[in-house]
């Protein structure tokens, strides 16, 4: 587990490309046979990936958390972005196809990840946030998530949003999580842009062809910066930053948040004409 600390707007204005990537881009998240985590000090969220190949991968404890076990004072959301897999939570097995989501309650101790077929490994994207209350461990299949269709082909942002963990879906203490899939031919996400000072956000890009890329926009609305992102990479977005992107081909991404509230509509919109 590695750490990423806070950066203010003033610091970010002076960063070069390498410094921006070092602070906000998580490049090596999905590695076969490993569980990898990045601890962000924005809302104390942990961003991770687990790719079980032969056998299962156990969720270990980390000294950095200063707890007796990983979810002693935390909750966790997991979305599978690979082949069929299963997650065992305190002896109970949950089967996850691609784009299924599992919320795991605070207090769960023995957690492991496995693939159904080693030739087509599951890829589990993980978010964990501090929690002060337990909610039931809950599995939600992609078909059960709340779909919202936004944008249009005319503006190259026709997309479908699936909400999993949020105020009207799977209940959690503070975690919010879902995914967005762009229609073929559409490339823009989260445009028009917004910020929400009350919540940080993490983006995980997947289903992007290996020879394609995404230009992710971040920073204050009038002081934007960009990062070039590839498949299975994640972005840490500070509460004061926009989080939009444009790909050279269609793709999907998982959005997840921790912070002051779980209101999906808590956004401070920014007009496209105001961006700089």
Automatic annotation (TrEMBL):
Reaction it catalyzes: 5-dehydro-4-deoxy-D-glucuronate = 3-deoxy-D-glycero-2,5-hexodiulosonate
Cofactor(s) demanded: Zn(2+)
Organism domain of life: Bacteria
Its EC number(s): 5.3.1.17
Keywords: Isomerase, Metal-binding, Zinc
Transmembrane segments: none
GO molecular function, one term: 4-deoxy-L-threo-5-hexosulose-uronate ketol-isomerase activity
Associated pathway: Glycan metabolism; pectin degradation; 2-dehydro-3-deoxy-D-gluconate from pectin: step 4/5
Cofactor remark from the record: Binds 1 zinc ion per subunit.
Residues holding Zn(2+): 194, 196, 201, 243
Pfam families reported for this sequence: KduI
Matches recorded under InterPro entries: KduI (IPR007045), KduI/IolB_isomerase (IPR021120), KduI_N (IPR027449), RmlC-like_jellyroll (IPR014710), RmlC_Cupin_sf (IPR011051)
Entry-linked Gene3D superfamilies: Jelly Rolls, pectin degrading enzyme 5-keto 4- deoxyuronate isomerase, domain 1
Family of the protein in this entry: Belongs to the KduI family.
Summary of the function given for this chain in its UniProt record: Catalyzes the isomerization of 5-dehydro-4-deoxy-D-glucuronate to 3-deoxy-D-glycero-2,5-hexodiulosonate.
Protein name: 4-deoxy-L-threo-5-hexosulose-uronate ketol-isomerase
């Amino acid at each position: 587990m590695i750490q990423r600390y806070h950066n203010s707007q003033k610091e970010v204005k002076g960063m070069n490309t390498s410094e921006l990537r070092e602070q906000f881009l998580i490049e090596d998240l999905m590695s076969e046979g490993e569980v990898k985590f990045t601890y962000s000090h924005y809302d104390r969220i942990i961003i991770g990936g687990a790719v079980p190949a032969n056998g299962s991968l156990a969720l270990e404890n980390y000294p950095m958390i200063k707890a007796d076990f990983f979810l002693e004072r935390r909750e966790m959301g997991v979305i599978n972005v690979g082949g069929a897999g299963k997650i065992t939570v305190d002896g109970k097995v949950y089967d996850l196809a691609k784009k299924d989501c599992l919320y795991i309650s605070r207090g769960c101790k023995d957690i492991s990840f496995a693939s159904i077929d080693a030739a087509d490994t599951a890829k589990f994207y993980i978010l964990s946030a501090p929690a002060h209350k337990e909610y039931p461990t809950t599995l939600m299949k992609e078909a059960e998530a709340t779909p919202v269709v936004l944008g249009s082909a005319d503006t190259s942002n026709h997309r479908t949003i699936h909400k999993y963990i949020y105020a009207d879906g799977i209940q959690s203490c503070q975690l919010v999580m879902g995914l967005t899939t762009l229609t073929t031919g559409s490339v823009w996400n989260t445009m028009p842009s917004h910020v929400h000072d009350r919540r940080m956000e993490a983006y995980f890009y997947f289903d992007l062809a290996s020879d394609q890329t995404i230009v992710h926009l971040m920073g204050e609305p009038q002081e934007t910066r960009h990062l070039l992102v590839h498949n299975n990479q994640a972005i840490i977005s500070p509460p004061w930053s926009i989080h939009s992107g444009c790909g050279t081909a269609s793709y999907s991404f998982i959005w997840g948040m921790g912070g002051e509230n779980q209101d999906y509509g808590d956004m401070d919109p920014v007009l496209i004409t105001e961006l700089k």
